[in-house]
Amino acid sequence: MRAYYWPIAAAALLAASAFMPWISVGTRQFGGVPDLAGLWVLACALLAVVLAGLSIVTRKNSRHPLLLVGLCAFGILFLAEQLMQRSAAQQGWSTSQARAIVEGGPAQPTPEPTVAPGAYVGLAAATAISLFGLTVVFKRAPRMQAEATDDDV
Fold it and tell me: CA-CA distance, 93 to 116, in Å (whole number)?
């Protein structure tokens, strides 16, 4: 049951990544807990801690739910990161165009959105939880060996 400390540590990293920015554009940063996706990732992290803690206390296997929680967290992070990149690029472009109209000059080029460390930490933690949950598929099969019996007695 000591193996369940692995998803607890990964869930702690996942919860920490929920408070970090996921996308940065210049000095602006997007993602994290104020957004709905950040709240969902935080909920997935708390659920993973509860499931792993219950497995330690009750000595029952809960790798199937951990696999689902890890996959959900990974999907939320990945899709939110993709959508935030597009949204940040469009928001930067529209702000640049609005400034150009007001100032009467040419539009300034907008910086490209980059992935912030919170997305990397969250994706790595969600992958670790998912891989731990996936170990339920690869069971160690019992080895059947015939024992030699002493027939001379």
Answer: 20
Residue 141's pLDDT is what?
64
113 domain residue, yes or no = yes
Q: Which residues contact 102 (CB under 8 A, 6 or more apart)?
A: none
Tell me whether residue 141 is in a domain: no
Per-residue pLDDT of 77-99, as tens digits, reads 999 989 988 888 888 888 888 98
Question: pTM of the predicted model, to two decimals?
Answer: 0.80
> What is the domain range of residue 68?
2-134
Asked if residue 145 is part of any domain, the answer here is no
pLDDT (average), residues 126-150:
79
Q: Could you list the beta-strand ranges (E) of 48-147.
A: 114-115
| Residues pairing with 115 in the sheet | 23
Question: What tokens does 93 get?
Answer: 């472009």
Number of domains in the chain: 1
C-alpha distances (whole Å) from 75 to each of 5, 107, 108, 123 are 23, 36, 34, 9
Classify residue 83: in a domain, yes or no: yes
Q: What are phi and psi of 51, to 5 degrees?
A: -65, -45
Range name among 28-37, 41-50, 132-141 with the lowest pLDDT average: 132-141
